User: What shape does this take?
Amino acid sequence: MKTISLSAVLVSAGTLGLAMLAASPAHATDGYFLNGIGAKAKGSAGVAIAQPQDALSIAANPAAATQLGERLDVGVEIFIPNRGATIRGNGAGLNGSYSGNGANPFILPEFGYVRQLSDSVAVGIAVYGNGGMNTVYKSNPFASFGATGPAGIDLKQIFVTPTVAVKLAEGQSIGVSPIAVIQGFRATGISPFAAASQSPANFTDRGTDWSAGGGVRVGYLGQFSDAVSIGAFYQSKIWAGKFDKYAGLFAQGGGFDVPASYGAGIAVKPSAALTIAADVKRIEYSDIQSVGNPLSNLFLGKPLGAEGGPGFGWRDITAWKLGVTYVASDTWTLRTGYGHSGNPVPAAETLFNILAPGVVSHHLTAGATYTTGSGVELTGYVMHAPKQTVRGAGSIPAPYGAGDADISLGETAFGLSAGFKF
Assistant: This one.
């Protein structure tokens, strides 16, 4: 295949970004981050920090660009979450079981391109959903408080990451990706809580609001023999503009930055056909006030929307991933994996997290790549995160009738991609 122009790539990336903004991502596997990026990584539990397999690997580790040649990868995922809540022991009439599945399924595309400029320098760009959260409760859990219509939220985050990587020595590379993020948010059906806000008019049912921001990701990739590779990355906090339409909901007047994350990985090849790889990643949710502040701040004189105001009470989590890749033939490559992430939602914080039940901890994956006679790589995968429930413990404050909210989430996803080498 002939080399394609960078201008054509940029136009394609922009078009895909617009399509992704029109979509409604609802991922929540590692908290509200994706469990992996790129179809090949997703087939092996999201492992990619030390095992670059396609152009979207630069989203996990920018240094990977030096090992990928020139290639283009385009994929799409169909994502089906199963979210719900049960409220018990409440004296204000909220008791009952509620389904948050008023919207399903969700479609999320992704795009990556990498090109070698010289023996030691490579560039690339990736466009993908970083994560998100969606709930639609057609039967509103807060109706007894006077809420009307469906209740829920819709958060989506699109990342655009141009990348430069340099090979410092044979098998030793570093890379950097400036990150641009565009995120959208909408909340509906939670008007009873507006009385606790510093800006009740900017709290719920304001339509989708948008904000943009930026940060940086840096990475290292080292190949120490034909059998062992080690990688690491650090992604800064991404400073984003405020959701003005929801300045009374999110702390700091609508603030919603993206938390910092960092991690490392190792890939080992016991044989030419078999690769066993593992990643570990830390996500610092608690550092973002609108995500990490506890509901109890409300009773310390901090209204919703204020500096130091209540958030969703999420804690930091660590995610572990183990993936196996087996090259069965020149035509077929097979993958499987298991991932485990900490649950970010404490038992005392489940009331607000009825809207954002990002509590799954386990996911299982399988995938395969078929390489055509012309060299096109067709990859498919499936991911399943078994339903997990967090039972509330003192989660509904006395002013709201006391009792507890139990929240649950399960997930299934299917994906396909096409990879082209040039």
